[in-house]
Design a protein that fits this description.
34% of the residues lie in helices and 19% in strands. With 412 residues, it is α+β, with helices and mostly antiparallel strands.
């Protein structure tokens, strides 16, 4: 399996991520990781922190001379605010009990955040004990893990790309899923939208929300190309690929809905217009789907078509004007949540995190199905599997029907 663990708080010394299960021989550089982290920081509507935040990356272990060793990879992301403002954060977030908090505890939990439920669960009086870890800053560590997963997938011909399809009430028209060749054009757009007209409308919506001190949510679409058929499984609920993708994407801070393929829309259609007809591509010697309604997943398994997921992010609950009602946990007096530095929207950044989570799920399934202690061994195992599909009874080279074929057809 491929698995990862993150640690750290938003204003603590650093974030740390450990990734286990990567094969040996995968090229890895600090610059490669920093490039992906930069993609997460940028986008129209981000707050001032993104303009001066720098992700200082240190690969601690698991890589030697630019290649993975097959052992766990540990990466540290230093917090530049910790270094820039030591009087504030190095004491406030100190691990030493003698330092104590330097400010009054935050006793007014913010609606829409983990604050109150976390305070009740862990017997905290200070919301900072919750919000520092619940912060979306944690996603920087995930992006590091996802960078490694995407690099491994790329050696197998799998690419993951995403784009913003909605911010507020401004939405892009439905079109063909983007490919990796579109990535530079998407990243060059201020809101990471492929459609110029929709991009302009999204920027207008962000400006209007900013003027009101408000925030906006939106939707991103993540597409994985080159995913081989058969990742995931139909035999157990917890091995279904679409359920794993949904769980991983729902774990992203502020995400409230996930759909695979056409998701919610197919619920309102007739069956004749809700599924992907199967065709045979004689030139490629392979099965194809005539549409992408299922999002590349049927019965909990990848079909060989692009895997498509859409992720909906709610408007950020931290606002630039204090209007959301709350209660002071000590006095029980009703008040409004405190104002703090925040983004108008983080949807363009969330798309990078969504890419990360999709890549990590797919890489985990690759490790489960194909194994391999080295990058080359995994590639050989995949090639052998694809060759077996080609030469098997369902492939173009197959000449014999499987035993009991009539009974299967009659029963199914």
């Amino acid at each position: 399996m491929l698995r990862f663990l993150t640690a750290g708080e938003s204003h603590g010394r650093a974030l740390v991520v450990i990734v286990e299960g990567l094969p040996a021989g995968l090229p890895v550089t600090v610059a490669q990781i920093q490039d992906e982290l930069a993609r997460r920081r940028l986008g129209y509507g981000r707050g001032p922190r993104m303009r001066f935040e720098v992700d200082e990356v240190t690969i601690v272990s698991g890589v030697r001379h630019g290649r993975t060793l097959g052992s766990p990879v540990a990466v540290e992301i230093a917090n530049t605010e910790w270094e820039r403002n030591p009087e504030k954060w190095q004491t406030e977030m100190s691990v030493d009990a003698s330092d104590g908090p330097t400010r009054q505890p935050l006793t007014q939990p913010r609606p829409g955040h983990a604050d109150l439920a976390g305070m009740q669960k862990y017997d905290f009086v200070d919301a900072r004990d919750v919000l520092e870890r619940a912060s979306a800053r944690e996603t920087a560590a995930r992006v590091v893990a996802g960078t490694l997963a995407k690099a491994w997938l790329a050696t197998l011909g799998v690419d993951v790309v995403s784009h913003v399809v909605r911010i507020g009430d401004a939405a892009a028209p439905i079109g063909p899923p983007p490919t990796i060749d579109d990535l530079d054009r998407i990243d060059a757009d201020e809101v990471r939208c492929l459609d110029p007209g929709a991009s302009a409308a999204m920027i207008v919506a962000i400006k209007e929300a900013a003027k009101d001190g408000d925030s906006l949510g939106g939707t991103v679409e993540v597409v994985a190309h080159g995913v081989p058929v058969g990742l995931g499984s139909h035999v157990h609920w917890d091995r279904k690929l679409d359920s794993k993708l949904a769980a991983a994407l729902m774990s992203i801070q502020a995400v409230k809905a996930v759909e695979i393929g056409d998701g919610w829309d197919v619920a309102g259609r007739r069956g004749s217009d809700a599924h992907d007809p199967i065709t045979w591509d004689a030139d490629a010697g392979d099965y194809r789907r005539a549409s992408h309604r299922a999002g590349g997943v049927e019965g909990g398994m990848s079909t060989g078509e692009p895997v498509i997921a859409r992720v909906a992010m709610k408007p950020l609950a931290s606002l630039n004007r204090p209007v959301l009602g709350t209660v002071d946990v000590l006095t029980k007096e009703e008040t409004v949540s405190f104002k703090e530095r925040t983004d108008v929207t983080a949807v363009p950044a969330m798309r990078v995190v969504a890419e990360t989570m999709v890549a990590l799920v797919l890489a985990d399934e690759v490790a489960r199905k194909f194994g391999g202690d080295t990058v080359a061994e995994t590639r050989r195992n995949l090639d052998a599997y694809l060759a077996a599909l080609h030469d098997g009874p369902l492939g173009p080279s197959g000449t014999e029907a499987p035993t009991g074929g009539d009974a299967i057809a009659d029963g199914g």
